[in-house]
Structures are given as structure tokens and as C-alpha cells.
Predict the structure.
Amino acid sequence: MSDAGRGLSPPGVLFAGLGLAALALPFLTLRANRIVAGDGVMLWDSAPLSHVLPGLLAMAAGLALGLPASAPLRRFGGSLLGLAGLLWLLATGAGALLVDAGDLARVSPAAGFWCLLLTLMLLMADALAQMEPGPKARAGLLVLLLTALAAVLWSGMLSDLSIAQEYASRRDAFRSATLRHTGLAFGSLAAAAAIGFPLGILCHRRPGLRGATLPVLSFLQTIPSLAMFGIMIPILGWVGSSFPAAQALGIAGIGFAPAFLALVLYSLLPVVSNTVAGLDAAPPAATEAARGMGMTPAQRLWKVELPLGMPVILAGLRIVLVQNIGLAVIAGLIGGGGYGTFVFQGLNQTATDLILLGALPTVLMALVAAVVMDILVDLTRRTPERPT
């Protein structure tokens, strides 16, 4: 193999090939209105060549910068350059296609755009994995990327896209859905932690309780999400109709309460099992040393076992949070609100961009939550070395 071949990154070569292949797919879709099937438009037909060329060159340069195996920082910069070019092409193409297209015309990203976006995001992830940034560096990068995304959205450069028009007509509803989705995901996580942590500690202390509890929680995880949401409807409907106080608190067969309860039940197994696993992971030498120092069981728990098991416990919370952000979409089917409202409205109306209005924020929220939780897990692992 030549020196040049050894200097190339295999993932980088793959991403460059995928980027070239994506150019053969339609980049944008032009529709007469928001619900009819549209026509695919190739990248070079979406705008005048003088507008397309800068973005195309930026993407090509970004993918080329991703080829060297020994330059992770340059590869990361290449992914940013490629994403900037992709956004430029999206904005200019949407604006150009809407000229003389009619007042009801809509422009949406097509398969070519999504493939290029995925390719560049994979290039970014591969470069970051090669760079191995610490928790603080990853937190800084996350803040910078979210700030850049917010600046792009607030600048209005993507306002010609159909999804931006869907948002503009539902601005207040989108804010309410964001609050409700956040409340479902993070509220159910907090409730599951409040129940699961003490239960996990008890299961750690009492093997008999562990043997009875974990199979029950595992069974709850096997129930399909739609079935779980459906089971909650008659149960909470009966509670709301039988107890006026519960009805006054908003507990009913549909709405927020059944969705929240179902998410809490789904969350208990990862919280309890990871709490048990984290406490079990404490080295016997450490617990014996703590016992030899005269620590009580409670002191050993708080000063030795929990700090040593915190990475495993936080990993369980990460699973719960990402899981609940996705499952909260289904709450839209039973009146629970959240981004699922837009997803199911879009399905009923065959409006793809309305579906994306609910799906894309859900994906973004899940990705950010996963990265933040990974950072917290890594921070808890950075414990001082014990003297030998």
C-alpha cells in the first residue's frame, strides 16, 4: 500500500463517496401546496449556477478535508465547512424555486439534502471521536454548535422552507408543545429517579427484594409503548371519575396524566437496575476499608458506594432521558401534547413538513440530552486515584 493510501481515513473515504452519490439524488422538492406530492429538483437546477457553485465547492472542500487520517482537527473543520455550504445551498435553492411558483407553493429538503446532512454529521462525529475531547471541551463545542444553529434559525435564512412556514403559522402552539414535551420527558425522569433510587438501594441491600422487583420491571418494559399508553387510559379515567380530587388535579383518561404515568413506568427498570449495578460495582476493598474506619452503612452508602457507582447510575438516567424524549411523541395520540401533536397532525393531513416540525426538535433534544449526560458520566469517572 502506498504512503498516500496509508494517510487516508477509511471513514473519510466512505463519507466522500457517499457525498458524491448523494448528488445524484433530488436535493429539493417543489410542491404546488403543502399537501400535494411535489417534483424533485436536482441540486444544480435549484438555483443559478453562480449561487450553487460556492456552496458546492464548500461541501467538496469539506469532504476533501475529511480524507486525511492524521488531521482530526482539520477533519472537524471540514465537516463545519461542508455544513455551511449545505445550508447555503438549501437557503438559496429554496428562495430561487419559489420565484414565480405561486403563493401556495412550498419547498422542502429532499433525499439528496438529508443524505448530505447525514454524511457531514457522521464526518463530524468521526473527527470528534478521533480527537477525543474531554468533557469540558465537548460541553464548549456543544454550546458553540447550538449557538450557531440558533443564529441560523433566527436569521431567517431558512424562512422560505415549508417547515419554517409551518412553524410561523403555529408559533404559539410550538412553544406550548415544547414545554409539554420537556415536562413529559424530564418530569417523568425526575419521578422515576425519586422512586427508582431508593428502590434500587433497597434491592442492593436485600437480594430477595431484588429478585422480586427486577422481573416485574422487566415485564413492564416488554409492553409495547402504544399498549402501555392505552392501558393507562381506562385506569386513570376510572380514577378521575371516582375521585373528585384527582379530577381537580387534571387526572383523566386522556391528556398529560396517562402519558406521564406510562413514561414513569417505562423508566423504572433502567433506573433501578443501574442503581443496583452501580452500587454492586464498588470494589470490595473500598467498602471493607470504609467498614474498618468505623463508617455506618449509611455513611458507606453516601461516601463510598454512591460516588463510585455514580457513572453507572448516570448511564441509567441517560438511557431513561433519551428513551422518554422519543416515547413522549406518542403522547400526542392520547391528548398528552408535545411534539407528537404535530407528527400525528401531519400524518392525518399527509403534510410531510408538519411531521418534520415535530420530529426534528425531538431528534435534536434527544441528541443534546445524550451528549450532556455523556459529559456528566465522564466527569463522575474522573475520581482521584487511591494511594497504593
The longest strand covers residues 28-31.
